[in-house]
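4'-phosphopantetheinyl transferase domain-containing protein
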Amino acid sequence: MVWKINNNCQIFIEKTDSIAGRQKEIIPHVSAYYVDKYTTISEKGVKTGSNRLCGTANQELLAGYMIFKYLGISSDEQLVRNEHGKPEIAAGYKNESAAFFNLAHSGPYVVLVISDRPVGVDIEHTKRMSYKVAKRIMRKAQLDRLEGFENESDAFQIELAKYWTQYEAIMKLVGTGFSGELDDRTMEAYEKRVVFRELEDYVIAVVTK
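Structure:
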């Protein structure tokens, strides 16, 4: 599935079941970083009988396969990581239309965003959103807006997911992830650039610099 925001930003969405039974075929095309994550998590999942961990392992493998498929990245030397661990395309492997990328996954979905400028993406399941957790990163105006929705209704959960995915996408754009915090000025500067998409029971947020 391809979601094109504009000529400078494309979003690719795939499901983990697309690689079911194909893991051995895919691994040679994936950088060691993602293969190692897949192997470690998969082995732990099998050992503990955890379907959740096995699903997470497939998310990591599919993420690595997608950056090979759409960016031609198949080795660790083509990637660098900033001080917070955010992966970026190494200098010399960038091109004007695909200089930056970001990944997110939740449930069966893995989302890859490719852009000519720094970009952040997040995806969350609306039914798993916790108001108690999300309200920690919400400003008063956002909390006030939620009062207009029936508590725990579908509309309430979707709105909550939008606030959360927006926040995380912006954190990933600026490169800190959850190792940092965003002040109101930074949030307000980027909020107007966030684009949302609802997909089944999921919300996706994408923001570019």
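Residues 24 and 35 are 11 Å apart (CA to CA).
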